[in-house]
Amino acid sequence: MKRKIVIALMAAAAVAMLVGGCGKASNSTSSDTSVTEGVGSDAEAEIVYDVMDYVKLGDYEGIEVTLENTYDVTDEDVKEAVNSEVSAYPMYVKTKKKVVEGPKETKTEGETSDASEEENVGDMVDIDYVGRIDGEEFDGGSAEGYHLTIGSNQFIDGFEDGLIGHKVGEEVVLNLTFPEDYSTEDVAGKDVEFTVKINGIVEEKEMTYDDLTDDYVKENFGYDTVKEYVKSKRESLEETAKTNKENDTKTAVINAVIENSEISGFPEGLLEKRSKDYKQDYVDMCEQYGMTLEDYLTNYNMTEEEFDEQINEYITNALNQEFVLEAVCETEGFDKDIDEDAYNEYVTNIVSNYGYESEDALVEEYGEDYIKNAYLWYDVTMNYLVDNAKVILTEPKTEGETSDK
Fold first, then answer.
1. Per-residue pLDDT, 295
2. Average per-residue pLDDT for the chain
3. From the CB of residue 341, how many other CB atoms can be counted at a distance below 10 Å?
């Protein structure tokens, strides 16, 4: 089974979805929508249409939708999220060992060992070190409280071996040479002197929710107490759950409105042009990353024909949403009296969330009428439908349970 590409991954596509995925509308208050398909020199003739010629609305007020309630954040959810995060930040506990030991001796021919080569390492040491070339410290050559496993080959030849046999508290001077092919050209092939203070021999302890301490969360996450850290994690999960619920509700409501409506088709050439432009966005994205569309699709084990089918399906669904929202907007007269303060806030959020230099830059790329249509359809009208919908939350199905629907 071939993996389905999530088309909205592209930043450009995300912006297009946020501002409606519609064409360049030249008149946001007319009963006819005038769309210029394409941008700049690629722009083609306007496609002018009245959306009501293509959409016959059914019931859209008081739509009833049912969602499985997966939006309540439990203590177990918080604990699981904390465990997932802290697993990447182990605690280092000082041992009573006083002398640094290296990897165990390599087994002789014919001898077997229970440990893999990767496990054949020595002590983990907590060190401070300063590197100097010609008596001067250099960028990236110093650190404090660094945890180094002897035999891990993280440092240049001689560094780790040079600490073996030395005692905790001792300061060791290592005179070494960077390899000629070292990745940093500024130091490649040069003699270097490292002064290393051995602070201790430590063991790595995997952290869990139950092991948290104030010192640990302060050092790794910047919170003064465990309580503050856990609270922030819960708030983050709750915010994500809230966003998921809002998005799921919008999807369920608009799908129900579409199902209740009749869409007879789209203006001639609109679907084809939208699909072509959308595909071109992918071509442009691939070029930015130094690859071709063929390279991109190969990564997903997908042919160009399958990709075209997916784009066509995606754009068809987007147009269904757009046409129904536009039809409701026109029927309710939302386009007759725009709340300028709310509209300006909508534009400001787009500029902030998608990294535009200014509102003028956004307007220059999309056109003010285009953005106003997006605001009217995907913000005002969508919110109206959701606010008037009846949302029923059901208990989540247990593992292995199936639905009769």
1. 93
2. 87
3. 8
Over range 202-213, report the average pLDDT.
Answer: 95
CB-CB contact of 23 with 266 (8 Å): no
Q: What H or E segment, with its residue span, contains residue 68?
A: strand 64-68
Closest CA to 299 of 312, 311, 289, 309: 289
Burial of 287 (C-beta count, 10 Å sphere; 0-12/13-18/19+): exposed
Mean pLDDT of 112-125: 69
Q: Which long-range contacts (CB under 8 A, 24 or more apart) does 276-279 make?
A: 277/37, 277/38, 277/39, 278/7, 278/13, 278/311, 278/314, 278/315, 279/307, 279/308, 279/311
DSSP structure class, residue 378: I
| CB within 8 Å of 1: residues ≥ 6 apart | none
Contact 7/314 with Cβ under 8 angstroms?
yes
Tokens at 155, concatenated? 């440092």
**Residue 124 parent element (H or E):** strand 124-133
Q: Is the distance from CB of 306 to CB of 253 less than 8 angstroms?
A: no
- Cβ burial of 100 (10 Å; 0-12, 13-18, 19+) is buried
Is the per-residue pLDDT at 106 higher than 70? no
Q: pLDDT tens, 334-352?
A: 999 899 999 999 999 999 9
φ, ψ of residue 392 in degrees (nearest 5)? -105, 125
Distance CA 178, CA 191 (A): 6
In the chain, % of residues over pLDDT 90 = 78
Short-list 167, 21, 156, 179, CA closest to 97 = 167
- Collect all residues with Cβ–Cβ distance below 8 Å to 375 and sequence separation of at least 6: 338, 342, 343, 346, 347
Average pLDDT over residues 246-257: 96
* Beta strand segments in 162-230, E: 171-177, 191-205
| 17: pLDDT strictly greater than 80 | no
Q: What is the mean pLDDT of residues 347-365?
A: 91
